[in-house]
Amino acid sequence: MTLFTDQLFLTDDKEGFRICRETRTVSPEATMTVILCTAGYLDVFYHGEMIRIGKNDLFVRVPDFVEPLGPYVLSDDLQFMQVTIDSKIYKQIMYDHIRVEPNWYTKQEYVKQHPIFRLSETSRDFFKTYFHALTLQLQDRLSDYRRQIMMLMARCAVMEMLNYIDKMSLIAYSSTKRVSANASDYLFEEFMRSLHQNPHQREVQWHAKNLELTPKYLSEICKEISGRSAGEWIAEFTVAELKHYLCNTTIPIHDIATIMGFPNSSFFCQYTKKHTGLTPNHFRKASK
After folding, report:
1. List of the chain residues with pLDDT < 70
2. Would you identify the CATH topology of the domain 183-286?
3. Across 66-201, where does the E strand assignment appear?
4. Are the C-beta atoms of residues 45 and 71 closer than 8 Å to each other?
5. Ordered DSSP codes for 212-241
6. CATH says 2-175 is which class?
7. Residue ranges of the domains in the chain?
8. Tell me: the pLDDT tens digits for 28-61?
């Protein structure tokens, strides 16, 4: 069985896996893929090495890791459930999570390096239930609220998975925490914390001063640790927030500008156009 829209892909058969991998039915850009193996195994080239996803394993490919999955081998007795979510939906889901989770970057990096989790029976049952519910909803093409319900269900499924990963990665990370973490690691985490606590401060200079660093050194640290500059991280947080308000609320544009600390709605419109390619009104209409 394979079902999909332009934002969500579900399959539990080998041909569906091949279709998603090779024809990229869902946009490949920064998608999130979750695979629960219930029998057999799946070998796949990921992050420079061949890894095995075995029975009761949950494989998670986080969405900002844009390198596609490589060559793969499926066992004859493989049974699995796969959910792939488009980046736009995932980012909407993640908006609330990253705003309340100051250590989300550290956990995300852990998941990149350790993408396989051995699920308990209860956690497997949760995943199977969400998978079945999403399957039924995708098949109901006559529902007027099909898309909205589907997105809410996908949100619940992802949040349940994040809840489990939070517990597992926190335990694993606390037991393998880098004892040799250097000053750059520490300062980058402090910068991430500063962004969470001061989301409407959009100047690198402000955060650098808050951390008692020069703007140049702060950006060098960010580039070294994450591959992105401080300015790019600030823009990432700001754009995620403005997209949340534009896509998920009916708050007037000028009020969003005020909430987000922009000096006026004109400046907010310019910022949105620069980072999304659309004016706030056009972006809001396009997201419907």
Report:
1. 21-30, 63-70, 87-109, 161-162, 165-182, 288
2. Arc Repressor Mutant, subunit A (1.10.10)
3. 72-74, 79-85, 116-118
4. yes
5. T--HHHHHHHHHHHHSS-HHHHHHHHHHHH
6. mainly beta
7. 2-175, 183-286
8. 455 778 899 999 999 988 877 889 999 999 998 8
